[in-house]
Amino acid sequence: MEQVEHSDNTLLLSEWQDLLNQTSPQVHDILTALSDEEIRHLVTAFYDYMLSHSESELFLNTDQVNSRLSHSMFHWLRSVLGSAGEDLPQLLENQRAIGIVHARIGLPLDLVARGARKLKNELYRLLQAKETIPASLLNDAICFSSLAMDTAIEAMTVSWSPGYQNSMRAQEQYRLLSIYDDVNVERERQINALTSWENQFIYNIATGLPAADIITLSASEFGMWLAHKGRYLLGNPEMLASIDELIKQADDRLARMRASEKQTEESRLSLLQAIRQLTGQIHRLLLAMFDAQVELENGKDPLTQLFNRRFIPTIMRREISLALNVRKPFVLAMIDIDYFKKINDSFGHNAGDMTLKSVATAIFDHFRSSDYVFRYGGEEFMVLLVESDLSQASIMLETLRAKIAGLAIEVAPGKPISVTVSIGLAEFDYHPDYKRLIEKADRALYVAKSHGRNRLEASRN
Ligand SMILES: Nc1nc2c(ncn2[C@@H]2O[C@H](COP(=O)(O)OP(=O)(O)OP(=O)(O)O)[C@@H](O)[C@H]2O)c(=O)[nH]1
Q1: What is the pTM of this model?
Q2: pLDDT by residue (tens digit) across 168-198?
Q3: 336 CB under 6 A from ligand 1?
Q4: For the domain 10-176, what is the CATH superfamily, name and number?
Q5: Ligand 1 touching residue 449 (CB < 6 A)
Q6: Ligand 1: residue whose CA is nearest its atom 14
Q7: DSSP SS3 for 268
Q8: pLDDT surpassing 70 at residue 152
Q9: Measuring from atom 18 of ligand 1, which residue has the nearest CA?
Q10: I need a labelling partner for 235 at 20 to 30 A (CA). Which of 199, 329, 331, 447 fits?
Q11: Which atom of ligand 1 lies at the shortest distance from residue 351's CA?
């Protein structure tokens, strides 16, 4: 669902390496010799400080801090302060991974900076208070630790800032706001532009006008729109590449026609046929891309009318925030139709589609209007049961499982079939990264599948 641009760590890698080289081995020894107790003191001071700010509430809570985050922060500090002994490219890659999680949970950059400032402050005090550090090395130790932390944080920020914040949000906004208000209007306009180029072309060729007077498809109104706006709006790289190729073929045909001295009736006819065929293909691709765009903007899956995946991040973040406020968990359920491929194979794709629709309706009708039902993928659905714990959700889902197993789906007149589903459940554990929860429910679903299907399993960790 989420794509991350791979960041280039070359600059940070060489600068961190230079920093390590410039710093005397005694400084590295001082920092790696900090005791576990001293590092734990820094971690505690950091979390105490962060937990005292209400903005951090969504991202941290005391249970998490105790159970997991302190441990991660401990290792982060050890690895950054002891970076002389680390595999530096791997260390930078780890920062990138941390940045991706920060981005997903929407952690504001000012909170990261605030936390870092607190950590540095505590570390400086700790170093200054250590009488064993010679005065001549104290400054260097402070400088090195500060610069190493800054580099690590920069690596986190660089990796998620363009990937998520800028590129994804900006592209999304650009798509939604800047170019057109109504996708349907734009679709008509561009189909007309393509058709009018084709008509002009046919007219010129049929009436024997010189081929040189015909504008190429890439320079036509449609071609210009595609190059400047269309490719950013429609955003389907494979289909766009196919359209580019078809436009190129059309323009090549035209160029050959212009270059040839004699144009026979036969060559004109063959050109007309080729151009008709190429524009027909462009037409179909264009419609498919516009249709996909409409579906995406509606946020609905056209087959089942359930939410598609587009709004999962937004809804999950909002529900996590609500769950933290009311201190009531929610439950995620991943529901997957068993042996669905066999239905397609035995009864055809339409029967598969009907089955998907029936199961989707059964799922949607089963839950409260406050719950969310998504079509997560092909034959997989995701349900978010708000203000619910595992035991309540298990009862609801067990009834759903039995209900679906009892459905008679008429895939053809007089041909009812039955299907079963496997279900994986996970209760919100107050960790702000929603992706972890989806993965937990997915793992539970996998267990349900491997234990024989037509059953539900809850995540136990
Ligand atoms: N008819 C139809 N089939 C789809 C759709 N989306 C995905 N599929 C098909 O769903 C099938 C899923 O098959 P698998 O992932 O092998 O899973 P399965 O057969 O359900 O087996 P298990 O999940 O292991 O029980 C694939 O054959 C897909 O082509 C759709 O929208 N309509």
Answers
A1: 0.63
A2: 554 554 555 444 457 778 889 999 999 999 9
A3: yes
A4: Globins (1.10.490.10)
A5: yes
A6: 341
A7: helix
A8: yes
A9: 339
A10: 199
A11: 1
